[in-house]
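Weekly modeling sync, notes
Attendees: AB, CL, MP (scribe)

Item 1: holo prediction request
CL wants a bound-state model with S-adenosylmethionine before deciding which constructs to order. AB pointed out that an apo prediction alone won't tell us much about the pocket. Agreed to run with the ligand included and paste results into these notes for async review.

Input as submitted:
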Amino acid sequence: MLGYDEPLVDSLPRGTVDSFAGTGNPFSFGDLRPGETVLDIGCGAGFDTLIASRQVGPSGRVIAVDMTPAMLEKTAAGARELGLANVDCRQGLAEELPVDDESVDVVISNGVINLCPDKVAVMKGVLRVLKPGGRFQIADIIVHKEVPQGAKDDIDLWSG
Ligand SMILES: C[S@@+](CC[C@H](N)C(=O)[O-])C[C@H]1O[C@@H](n2cnc3c(N)ncnc32)[C@H](O)[C@@H]1O
């Protein structure tokens, strides 16, 4: 439904696919190039990180950032299972990215920024870490209408 190539999805570890919680497909904006450095903000279980890792190849690198150690461990386990040595898992917040200035060719993210209370801080961080001419390929949720207070107060609508 999101346009991921089915054989590609089938080639990922089952646990990675089962834990996928993205809202779209960052690669629909274009594939990554061999040798590029990529940052996946809110990598979760690593679905997009592992795809990115294969696209950039051994000469490239994927920095996978998540605030949750349990999700980072899933990403690291997936990379180990596929023998991908170019995945660099870092615990941290999207609002305070643990990444050097102007060090990244492409920032990807899938279903994360809508969860971040300080979206301006996230965007400033993205601009900070991207090299000049770098790319920003995200999939996320945008709300076009004001969310009713009743929905904001209903925790069952916010959690899975
Ligand atoms: C909906 S899941 C998406 C995970 C992954 N991108 C995917 O497509 O499967 C959101 C992820 O973002 C992480 N996350 C949420 N808010 C964050 C923040 N402020 N900083 C870092 N990670 C965050 C969560 O821990 C979770 O792993």
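Recorded for review: The chain has six helices and five strands.
Action items: CL to compare against the apo run; MP to circulate these notes.
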